[in-house]
Amino acid sequence: MNDEYLIVLKSILPDYFESVIKVKAMVEDENRSVSEACKKFDISRSTYYKYKDKIFNASKSYGKKCVIALKAADKAGVLSSIINDIYDAGVNIISLNSSLPIKGVAFITISLDISSANIDTAHIVARLKNTEHVKSANVISVE
Q1: Which superfamily does 65-142 belong to?
Q2: In whole angstroms, what is the distance from residue 10 CA to residue 62 CA?
């Protein structure tokens, strides 16, 4: 069981959680500044930044795609190990972007189709974190 995520009715959550979703949408869809959007929905910028990567709007397609950011050492075979871990989880890679390594560290962003995964997203991330030479792995977004 995945102990990291919960599905709850928004009526039991503080109002600012929904405001964070609205601010995210305004910033992403309307190209507004974070300050402007936060003022409109009456939340502080610190509240927005604290929760923006932890609150996602559920939809009928929720849980079908996700973006994971990794930080890995610049070592031969690390990217191959990451791809193999993803493949072993029954997940399809939509896109993969690896930055030029700086000071021996590469930043990797992977977009995944998780609709046919044989384990949940939290376990995929945990598996990636345990991959040799991977320094961190975090979910950036889920749709």
Answers
A1: ACT domain (3.30.70.260)
A2: 16
CA atoms within 13 A on the CB side of 38: 13
Query: Alpha carbon of 22 to those of 49, 60, 101, 141: distances in Å?
Result: 13, 18, 35, 15
The candidate with the shortest Cα–Cα distance to 89, out of 141, 54, 131, 135, is 131
* Per-residue pLDDT tens digits for 37-51: 999 999 999 999 999
**In this predicted model, what pLDDT tens digit does every residue of 91-133 receive, in sequence order?**
899 999 999 999 999 999 999 998 888 888 888 888 999 999 9
Contact criterion met (CB below 8 Å) for 108 and 115: no
User: Residues 68, 140: contact at Cβ < 8 Å?
Assistant: yes
Q: 97: exposed, middle or buried (C-beta count within 10 Å: 0-12, 13-18, 19+)?
A: exposed
> Residue 141's beta-bridge partner residues?
67
- Yes or no: say if 140 and 69 are a contact pair by the CB < 8 Å rule: yes
